[in-house]
Amino acid sequence: MERDLGVDAHVRAGNRLFYLAWLVVGIAFGAEAIIATMNGRALRTALPSTLHGALGLVGLGLLTLLWLSGRRAHEMKEAAQPFAAEQRRHGRASDFILALAGLHAFLGFLDLLQRL
Question: Are 31 and 45 in contact (CB under 8 A)?
Answer without folding.
Answer: no
